Amino acid sequence: MVIVKDERMSRKRTYLMCPPERFTVAYAINPWMDTSAPVDVELALKQWQLLRETLARLGHTVHVLPAQDGLPDMVYAANGAFTVDGTAFGARFRYPQRTAEAAAHRAFYEEQGTWAYVEPTEINEGEGDFAYLPDAYGGMILAGYGFRTEAVAHSHAQEALGRPAISLQLVDPRFYHLDVALAALDDGNIAYYPGAFSAGSQRILAQLFPDALLADEADALAFGLNLVSDGRNVVLNAEATGLAAKLTAAGYTPVLVELSELKKGGGSVKCCVAELRP
């Protein structure tokens, strides 16, 4: 069946973002971070604000988590927790440079007064390594491991959130989080770069998502898969023109944003945006 654009339906989402007011590359904990490359904080703020305004213009609600001194990576808000149906499964970061971010995110959820917060016992980095598809097989969590999140955390998330978690092994250090190798395009389908995953995980993804959009290495290296989609509008890195063309052909509407400064820390659109699922 040929899918035309009008068949793609957007759904209003709620997001959490943190401004890059303290952003810098002061250490290297992924292959993209170069401490010798200066960061233009003013430009980073402008790019971040444009991303926030883009999401709002598309009809979505954006909450803002204040930046904190000494936590330059807080701008990557997706890593602070993973939420499903009013429950927030908290993060426990692998590297000590980011450990305190977890408490800032926990405080946000507790201050809202409507979330059930689950304190993790094993290392996991929130939506960096978890994706949720509510319409896939009755509600499914895709969970990455190999570089940051420990595989045992997947079963803990499954128990806390009451949704089956499918473990996927990442094998290429350039794609150190699931969200730079795979993205939910809507509530039931995904895009991903097969080369980021082990052979077994590739077979699992092919079986579960036969209609997935397959990205190539160039798409992935342009941080194209580090995207945010509402089911119709797909907000992604401006460099990912190849993936944008594939999305258009598949009936989605790509919305390109420039995040060159934030890419210096190893992240793009999705890294900066946590989805809140009350």
From TrEMBL:
It comes from the Bacteria. Gene3D superfamilies: L-arginine/glycine Amidinotransferase, Chain A. NCBIfam families: DiMArgaseDdahMtb. This is Amidinotransferase. It comes from Asanoa siamensis.
